[in-house]
Amino acid sequence: MTAPVNVPISSRGKLATSLPAEQLAEITELFENRREGFSLDAPFYTDPSVFKIDMEAIFGRHWIFAASVAELPEPGDYVTVDYGPYSLIVLRNDDGGVNVMHNVCRHRGARVLPESTGTTGNLVCGYHSWTYAPNGDLIHASAPGETKFDKSCFGLKRAHGREYAGLIFVCIAADAPTDFDETAKIFEPYLLPHDLPKTKVAYQQNIIEEGNWKLVMENNRECYHCDGHPELACSLFPTWGLTEGFIPPHLEEVWDRNTEAQASLEKRCERYGIPHQVVEELDTRVAGIRISREALDGDGESFSPDGHRLSKKLLGDLRDFRLGRCSMHLQPNSWFHFLADHVVTFAVFPVSEHQTLVRTTWLVADDAVEGIDYDLGKLTHTWKQTNLQDKAFVELCQKGASSPVYEPGPYMKSEYQVEAFINWYTQRVLEHLA
């Protein structure tokens, strides 16, 4: 369901498309000449001007995943979300909805809430104590001698916020894309059985990767490199992304085991009325999505060395631990794993053309007790290791893209989702530049 939201106030600010006409024409040509089926040219990953356009055309116009409801369960709870030049406050209001505001004081521009998370009543800027209500209205500005100061003109600038099935999304555009509601209708039936409003944060990890945000997303969208994830390969079948007829000999036995496990999982899902079908519209809609429920190896329950559950508490109204993982990819900045015993969310926030923040959050049932129902080290081990390995892969690619001898290489058949992401990305930027 969509939670109540505040009304956005448009403030476009300085646009990357105000670049000199010659430079903008060169960048537009770069996008128009993008070679299908090949990785991007080096400037897509290294050029500060392309990064500015990314912030305007992608992160400045589209819905991005910000947090889960478990991160701000009570009124007054907030998180701050930073990407590129932007900082947003996402705050739970008294009505149960979310208020989303730019984290920029209307007096001298100081960050109103410098912490990444916390609880607040009114929002008080630490510089000159300008004070804002939870909806962003300015309610106090101590200004001796000011007799004609109109506080109603200086509320925090607002953005759009939406909550679906326990996930919170934000958009800073004046007019947010309208098709996200339709995408939410696709994923809500898959997520609702996990009941995210009845989860809590077990752990959150922030990693800065020395790589462009698109390299982070590309790396996520394929398993061609999954031999480099030994911990993950214990439970995640490394045949993900492969199709019949393209199975290398060393994975044939794994493919057969995966096929059998998937058939068993689908029967179990049908017994419980849980959707499992693959929906893949990564580059055929503005709010691109891929979602499915897929079997895990071993016991088929969780991301552990033997596939066994990592928490003793089932989520929501689920009745079986052996439900594999519901995997969801959303353009442009997130992916998720919903299991019977816990949930892992991933959010990607660009910092600069060569730096990206990757935020991973582990959620467990709100009545699960650490040390009794789950061991935090075991719960987080697989993805902590996998994240470090992915960080290394991304940074290798960033170094390569910065080399004078770099040139785009072809995507393999198993990397079709990388191609879909890049196609989605170039479509959106070209629409904006047009």
UniProtKB/TrEMBL annotation:
Positions of the Rieske domain: 63-170
Spell out the protein name for this chain.
Aromatic ring-hydroxylating dioxygenase subunit alpha
Q: Which UniProt keywords apply?
A: 2Fe-2S, Dioxygenase, Iron, Iron-sulfur, Metal-binding, Oxidoreductase
Q: Which InterPro entries match?
A: Rieske_2Fe-2S, Rieske_2Fe-2S_sf, Ring_hydroxy_dOase_asu_C_dom, Rng_hydr_dOase-A
Out of the domains of life, which is the source? Bacteria
Classification via Gene3D superfamilies: Naphthalene 1,2-dioxygenase Alpha Subunit, Chain A, domain 1, Rieske [2Fe-2S] iron-sulphur domain
Q: Please list every transmembrane segment annotated in the UniProt record, as residue ranges.
A: none
Please give the Gene Ontology molecular function terms for this protein.
dioxygenase activity
